[in-house]
Design a protein that fits this description.
Layout: E1 21-29, E2 38-46, E3 51-55, E4 58-62, E5 73-79, H1 90-98, E6 102-106, H2 122-141, E7 149-159, H3 161-169, H4 189-195, E8 210-216, H5 226-229, E9 236-240, H6 256-259, E10 266-269, H7 284-289, H8 291-294, H9 302-320
Parallel strand pairs: 5-6, 5-7, 7-8, 8-9, 9-10
Antiparallel strand pairs: 1-2, 2-6, 3-4
Helix pairs in contact: 1-9, 2-3
Organism: Bradyrhizobium denitrificans
Keywords: Hydrolase, Signal
Protein name: Dienelactone hydrolase
Length: 327
């Protein structure tokens, strides 16, 4: 996986772009003074027919080495959830690329399925937003096709811990201090570190280059005071799973905790959806290996839901990036 380069695509189209598939390839952001090395995948519009490929047991439809189609393309960055990976939302990324967006997803150092060394830690809460800024820097300055990106139209998709990341990136300003309400009863390692007197090692800086965001089931939401959420100014599409389907106390459910604070969000409550229903549909191999992530509520059709989810997300970004050439 570490040295593999692969390209992904989805099987259905929105009919709003000439692209026929979504090309994807691995890239690396080198380690430096601003942080450790970061692995990422970049999905791009592609005019070729896809091939079926296997990645970690997930089935993607790919066009290896497909040339990028289009100019002045908006950029969407994806932040995965706790212990996730850059391919966890591959169908969503492919849908966006097929609609004419460049999509970049990263592995957050210290909090992935392969590296859980800092999962739930204060350092991850602080560094995740910085990872996104480093990703944007790379896409605008270091990515081989950087001149094709419309730097004035950058969006973000964040799920669960990635939803926390996204809110921090757009200016939500998390309150990370000792005595934080709800931290005393939380199992979050960061809370224990804060209560023991540990302080964030750096300031969390918003990134004004992000102009629109899709936030899904953000966690931890209790670190965002309502007054800080109200300071965010960019358009937000907010998605929530159903608390009735997350009775096991799943940390990422749901979005209601931030709904009132965000200024007039485009809010979507998904009845009968579980937290992990927002992840890409599982193959049989994935379902056998991780049934908790792959099993939906009885009667819930994840494939059909994702078709509607993607249409709404594409429409949201198109609305707010209307001046861009391709979308």
């Amino acid at each position: 996986m570490r040295s593999t380069k692969f390209v992904f695509a989805i099987c259905f189209l929105f009919g709003l772009t000439a692209a026929k598939a979504a090309g994807v390839r691995n890239f690396d952001i080198p380690a430096g003074a601003t942080g450790p090395a970061i692995r990422l995948l970049v999905w791009t519009p592609c005019a070729e027919s896809p091939q079926e490929m296997d990645a970690r047991g997930a089935i993607f439809f790919a066009v290896p080495g497909c040339p990028v189609t289009g100019e002045k393309l908006p950029l969407i960055v994806i932040s995965h959830g706790r212990r996730g990976w850059f391919g966890g939302h591959h169908d969503t990324a492919a849908a966006l690329a097929d609609a004419g967006f460049v999509v970049a997803a990263l592995n957050h150092p210290g909090d992935t399925w392969r590296d859980t060394s800092r999962t739930d830690s204060l350092s991850v809460l602080v560094e995740r937003p910085a990872d996104i800024s480093r990703l944007i820097d790379y896409m605008l300055d270091g990515w081989p096709d950087a001149p094709r990106i419309d730097a004035q139209h950058i969006g973000l998709y964040g799920f669960s811990f990635g939803g926390y990341t996204g809110i921090a990136v757009i200016g939500g300003n998390p309150d990370l201090r000792k005595g934080l309400p709800n931290c005393a009863t939380s199992s979050l390692l960061a809370c224990k570190q804060l209560e023991s007197g540990e302080a964030p090692g750096q300031l969390i800086k918003p990134d004004p280059r992000v102009k629109a965001a899709v936030i899904v089931d953000p966690y931890p939401a209790f670190v965002f005071p309502e007054k800080n959420l109200k300071r965010t100014t960019i358009p937000v599409q907010l998605w929530s799973s159903d608390p009735a389907q997350n009775a096991d106390g799943l940390s990422g459910c749901c979005a209601a905790a931030v709904k009132q604070g965000l200024p007039v969000p485009d809010y979507h409550f998904v009845a009968n959806a579980r937290h992990f229903s927002f992840l890409a549909t599982c193959t049989l191999k994935e379902a056998q290996a991780n049934p908790a992530v792959c099993t939906d509520a009885p009667g819930f059709d994840r494939v059909d839901f994702h078709r509607n989810l993607h249409a709404d997300i594409v429409a949201f970004f198109r609305k707010h990036f209307a001046e861009s050439a391709n979308p």
